[in-house]
Amino acid sequence: MPKQYALLSLPRSGSTWFWQQLQWPGRARDCNGEFFNPGTNRRHCANLCTMFGAHPPYEDNAALPSSAASARLEDAYHRSWKPAGFQSTKEVWACCKVPFFAGHFRCAALVRHRQYTFPGRENREWTDRWYDGLYRSFLHNILFLPVPVCRLLDRLKRQDCSPVERRVGTHILASYMLLYDCDKYSIPVVRYHCLTRLPQDELRDYLIGLNIPGVNAVDLAARVVKTRKTPDFLPSKVWAYKKYNVEPFCQEFLKLGGGLFEPFLEYLNPAEFCVADGR
């Protein structure tokens, strides 16, 4: 079993904060925690950018599936990660590379619902830029993607799809691909809103049930409660999301996906969707 650790997520999911609370050993601090991000790891960028993707201008490989380039991913891994000597990292461009990370790390995943992701409280233009780049990467790698995903991309390519709808639709697709492979490789998936809303005793039980590798759930719950956002944080994000008026499109998009999304609706369209703002 791998002895090193990785937190897998998507952009704007709260991963930096949660990764710090995990307190895994040997964290890759000098690249903002994201060792495999060629945009933040300048030292190893030349090796990483050949296979791993990130925000523009490193977007091409962000949606390149592990299965399409496993040998070259291994080469980039051995040329960069192995000599560096770190023990843990996080990766927010992981939606298409879960099999690679599962092969080398003991993993956990963090997901945050779209209503808490868009439009982004700070640096909103970066949220737009990141998901525009991820959408372009899906198109760039469309020959390697599952046929049902390609059909959903066709919906996002239509001229009547607004830039906002395209970004949120990309988030749904990326979340699905992350969740699908996490389920396949038995990787525990943490829901951001549970971290920020549950009382400490309930959060402790929730984390114990997830069995995140390499952490004590009791201690982790205490650290999360001590450092998490104030109670008005999530309602304020829901209020900002509502101004997008994009949810009718999302429901149409989820319905279009049909059985593809159904096993993961508790994450993509949870019952708690309307709870955060008191409805």
Sequence-ordered SSE layout with sheet pairings:
Layout: E1 5-8, H1 15-22, H2 45-48, H3 70-84, E2 88-91, H4 98-104, E3 106-111, H5 114-117, H6 124-140, H7 147-157, H8 163-184, E4 189-191, H9 192-197, H10 200-210, H11 217-227, H12 233-242, H13 247-257, H14 265-268
Helix pairs in contact: 6-8, 7-8, 8-13, 10-11
Structurally, the number of domains stands at 1
Instruction: Report Rg.
Output: 18 Å
Q: What is the tally of helical segments? A: 14
**How much is the average pLDDT?**
91
Explain how this protein is built.
- The chain has 279 residues and is an alpha/beta fold.
- Strands 2-1-3-4 form a 4-stranded parallel sheet, sandwiched between helices.
- The protein starts with a strand and ends in an 11-residue tail after the last helix.
- The chain has one domain (5-274).
- It has 14 helices and 4 strands.
- 51% of the residues lie in helices and 6% in strands.
- The chain is globular, with a radius of gyration of 18 Å.
- Mean pLDDT is 91; it is low at 274-279.
- The longest helix is centred in the middle third of the chain and has 22 residues, at 163-184.
- It has helices spanning 15-22, 45-48, 70-84, 98-104, 114-117, 124-140, 147-157, 163-184, 192-197, 200-210, 217-227, 233-242, 247-257, 265-268, and strands at 5-8, 88-91, 106-111, 189-191.
List keywords for this structure.
51% helix; globular; 4 strands; alpha/beta; 14 helices; 279 residues
TL;DR of this structure?
The protein is an alpha/beta fold. The chain has helices at residues 15-22, 45-48, 70-84, 98-104, 114-117, 124-140, 147-157, 163-184, 192-197, 200-210, 217-227, 233-242, 247-257, 265-268, and strands at 5-8, 88-91, 106-111, 189-191. Helices cover 51% and strands 6% of the residues.
